[in-house]
Amino acid sequence: MRLTRPGIAYIVITLLIGFAAVNTGNNLLYLIVSALLGFMTVSGVAGWLNIRGLALQVRLPDEIYADQETFAYLVIVNRKRFVPSFLLRVSVEGGGWADFNLVERQADEAGSAAIRFPRRGIVTLGRAVVSSPFPINFFVRSTVLPLDARGVVFPSPLPCAGFSVLPEQAGRGGRESLSPGYEGEVDRISDYTGTEPFRLIHWRLSARHGSLKVKGMTAVADEPIILDPDRLPGSDREERIRCGVWLVNRAIRANRPVGLFVDGRTIAPDTSRAHRLRLLTELALHGIR
Prior knowledge:
Blueprint: E1 2-3, H1 5-24, H2 27-50, E2 54-59, E3 64-65, E4 70-78, E5 85-92, E6 96-103, E7 107-115, E8 121-132, E9 139-154, E10 175-191, H3 203-209, E11 213-221, E12 225-227, H4 237-253, E13 258-262, E14 265-270, H5 273-285
Parallel strand pairs: 3-9, 12-13
Antiparallel strand pairs: 1-9, 2-4, 4-7, 5-6, 5-8, 8-9, 10-11, 13-14
């Protein structure tokens, strides 16, 4: 509990009137002091009840980068049967906080808090602080709520543009993909729907069938790559790992399969989002587990 400026002023005024009542013996001053002390007691009890019976759930996003701001999802639950809670501020590790003006009895409210973690690796949020100036901003009372939220902080990407493993144009030195495209080999003939480029129209077959026919092409995909974070550009391990994060994101964004050779293991190339998060997790934990 900490005093606010209005609270300090209230206590000072109460003490001054109390001293005056003792020195003068004036009954009216005694009544005023009693009323002030009674009001302070009632507000104290109300503020104490306001932050009791609360629980908190925190969910971290699945993609967090070191020293970059992201948002955590918060749900605060009021377990009290009869009394709502007002003017709550929830502060979590990572510097984030969220305000809740009203949480009804036996109800919950959702919010988000901006957080930032300075280093890569596993983070655990074990506690949160709930504070409130309710009811009259004389005192800010707080309580600690337990948490069990875990996440992995990825290294912040560091561009390494001089690294030539990723061609600027997909398809240069590439291979055929099973997905549809416009630059691979012909794998089917279909009717023209009006969305295909004119260059894909098969004019000879169209003249023979009396309707427009288009060529279905396969897409061109780049050759898979395997990254070794210990052999990437960088002045130290951290820069090499950050370069690896940048390359993984850039490759998969370009639909190029990418894998990883780390800690004596080889992770096969792929392009899915789950695979990308797995590679980033391996890089985040490389050398610290």
